[in-house]
Amino acid sequence: MSLPPLPDSATxxxxxxxxxxxxxxxxxxxxxTADRLEETGDRGEGGDxxxxxxxxxxxxxxxxxxxxxxxxxxxxxxxxxxGTVNYGSRDVLVVIDPIDGSMNAKRGLPSHAVSIAVAVGxxxxxxxxxxxxxxxxxxxxGVDERWTAIRGEGAFLDGEPFTAPPEERLTSEGLLELVAxxxxxxxxxxxxxxALLEHVHRLRATGAIAxxxxxxxxxxxxxxxSLWRCRAVDAAAGQLVVTESGGVVSFGDLDDPLxxxxxxxxxxxxxxxxxxxxxxxxxxxxxx
Length: 288
Ligand SMILES: [Mg+2]
What we know:
Elements: H1 9-27, H2 33-36, E1 39-43, E2 49-51, H3 52-70, E3 75-79, E4 83-100, H4 102-107, E5 113-120, H5 124-127, E6 133-140, E7 145-150, E8 154-157, E9 160-161, E10 176-182, H6 186-191, H7 193-199, E11 200-204, H8 209-217, E12 223-226, H9 232-244, E13 248-250, E14 271-273, H10 276-282
Parallel strand pairs: 10-11, 10-12
Antiparallel strand pairs: 1-2, 4-5, 5-6, 6-7, 7-8, 8-9, 12-14, 13-14
The protein binds magnesium ion.
């Protein structure tokens, strides 16, 4: 098989699904709590302690990227643990979180995901933002839901278009009925408490930003907010699933919502909702 230097979105997504199958099969072999808690002893490029789980998942994903490159694809990879890896082009960037929700994965909780996005543009490695993301996959490994999106073509669950509600559900008091919070450190929850009381009826804390974004896309929650800074690897694929579902996302600036760099720096919180009015409310939740 030979690929053009820039494969089409369907080719990327098929490759990301194959990589996810490999990660899922690997995780099924790591069943004891002690094995899931094992650390490699390194810190990833993103700064967190690397779990063996994260490192092995990343290795499996890079094996798929190696195959794409051997078949002719040219790109740069940016991944949570390895950082930047050159596969021949600075105009295509593959943004990878091998496991979003690592803490859930290591404790055996179901909500953890493979998150991979592709961004395309002139020197996107240095200059790219969320607005340059053209396709992505968020694979929720707990329930095995595969969320994908292709810019301009829509968002899909397990390969099928899904119907997202146009608007938030509000309670009779006018509160957002159900909102997902991420980065839910008690300090952040306390600092956001007044805004949460003002806007939200019930909270859900999934523990994986990518998955929380997809739940907004499907209207399972009325909005999401990371209460603290978010990294591009966590949100690059999920934000496209939201926008292609008809929802809205912001990384700190409601006037230029997708202008956030594709790098490993923890930047502004990510917030998402079904409508601009909902977004303005969830944007109040993270404290500064
Ligand atoms: Mg991760």
